[in-house]
Inverse folding.
């Protein structure tokens, strides 16, 4: 299975969100064990969602921690209540039927009441479904707005080119020769040490053309480019970059 | 940022490990749970259940399968989402706004650094927030979102990937990943 298609498949997000079937989980774990790109991507997704969760943090009330720790002491095995001793043997047959009759009566009463409850529940569930439906229509409208990056990524003619030095620097460049556009994901490129800056290049007609300094996010990386035969990352000494690459760190060729 | 000693203690069902996890992640988990159940008392119950489950299942946490905070988040989210599906919850649903719940007298004030982060996240493009909220807080699978909205599953998957990329952009660009992880670091 092609690694890039696997990473783009949405399965990794589903795995992180705990929404996979057992077979899908096994598949993700196998791919992660075999491919460092898959592991890196899984890690990135987790960190992003963790950050999103942390951004919504709310301090719980003061008593919460103590309450939790107390419940844990009750959880420890050995604190379970002792078994209740069995009733006397002489009255067994009578007792048995008395208890059985009582249970049957209780079951009947319960089922009758439950019947009524379920009628009400159904109504409420219908109301809830209707409101969810409305919410999804609103979301639908939001989600359908045009988007050049998603268009690029989704287009069947888009190539995914790995630009990597095989050590710490790697990114996927999305390049479409017909749309004449490229973008890349800057997150797997580590922050360079002080005084050095990463610059992106497309190789066009045998010459390097600057695609700008390393972008902050994928949106910022979007550039028009045509007839590229390769993409490269270089190390530069100036924050604004140089007209030609100084030290090329990684190259990826188009197909 | 994974603390191996803490993980070992969790896997050994050491109760003090749960105390450390609470200090580090309790507020973040509480925020997520509140957003899902939207009722203060129920959220408090769910938060306690979350940590009890984390303790009970500590031995089965496998660091090679995912990060610790993500593992806790999934326990919290699942417990919270299950709580919203009980008939009891449907009946007792109130119309409190989330802001009222968050700033109610029972809770402490929010760390101003966290407010700054929240503002940045709230500037995330609405279409991506909607999708993350549906999938993350409401527990819809990508397939369910596609079915309900009629948008092709492939587009939903691309959108979600892009939405998560946007989150990375916010944190990496503003140097907030370090800030958040620092906020959540155990201060002992």
């Amino acid at each position: 299975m092609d690694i890039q298609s696997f990473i783009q498949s949405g399965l990794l997000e589903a795995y992180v969100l705990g929404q996979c079937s057992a077979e899908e989980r096994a598949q993700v774990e196998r791919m992660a064990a075999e491919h460092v790109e898959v592991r890196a991507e899984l890690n990135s997704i987790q960190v992003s969602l963790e950050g999103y969760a942390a951004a919504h943090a709310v301090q719980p009330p003061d008593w919460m921690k103590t309450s939790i720790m107390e419940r844990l002491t009750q959880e420890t095995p050995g604190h379970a209540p002792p078994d209740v001793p069995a009733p006397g043997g002489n009255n067994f047959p009578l007792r048995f039927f008395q208890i059985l009759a009582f249970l049957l009566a209780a079951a009947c009463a319960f089922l009758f009441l439950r019947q009524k409850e379920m009628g009400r529940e159904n109504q409420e569930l219908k109301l809830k479904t209707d409101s969810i439906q409305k919410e999804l229509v609103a979301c639908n409208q939001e989600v359908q707005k045009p988007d050049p990056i998603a268009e690029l990524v989704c287009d069947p003619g888009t190539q995914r080119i790995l630009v990597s030095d095989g050590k710490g620097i790697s990114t996927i460049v999305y390049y479409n020769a017909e749309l004449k556009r490229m973008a890349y994901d800057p997150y797997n490129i580590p922050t360079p040490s002080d005084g050095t800056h990463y610059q992106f290049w497309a190789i066009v007609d045998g010459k390097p053309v600057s695609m700008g300094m390393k972008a902050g996010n994928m949106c910022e990386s979007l550039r028009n480019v045509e007839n590229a035969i390769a993409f490269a990352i270089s190390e530069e000494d100036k924050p604004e970059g140089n007209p030609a690459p100084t030290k090329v760190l990684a190259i990826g060729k188009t197909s | 940022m994974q603390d191996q000693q803490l993980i070992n203690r969790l896997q050994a069902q050491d109760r003090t490990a749960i105390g450390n996890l609470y200090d580090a992640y309790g507020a973040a988990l509480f925020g997520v749970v509140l957003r899902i159940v939207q009722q203060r008392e129920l959220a408090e119950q769910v938060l306690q259940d979350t940590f009890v489950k984390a303790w009970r299942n500590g031995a089965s946490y496998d660091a090679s399968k995912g990060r610790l905070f993500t593992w806790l988040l999934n326990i919290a989210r699942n417990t919270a989402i299950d709580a919203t599906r009980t008939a009891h919850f449907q009946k007792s649903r109130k119309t409190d706004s989330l802001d009222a719940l968050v700033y109610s007298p029972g809770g402490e004030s929010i760390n101003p650094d966290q407010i700054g982060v929240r503002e940045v996240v709230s500037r995330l493009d609405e279409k991506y927030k909607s999708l993350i909220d549906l999938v993350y807080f409401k527990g819809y699978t990508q397939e369910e979102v596609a079915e309900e909205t009629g948008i092709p599953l492939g587009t939903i998957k691309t959108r979600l990937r892009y939405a998560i990329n946007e989150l990375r952009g916010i944190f990496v660009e503003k140097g907030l990943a370090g800030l958040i992880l620092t906020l959540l670091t155990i201060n002992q």
User: Anything to note?
Assistant: The longest helix of chain B spans residues 15-37. Chain B touches chain A through 86 residues (CB under 8 Å). Confidence is low (pLDDT under 50) at residues 94-113 of chain B.
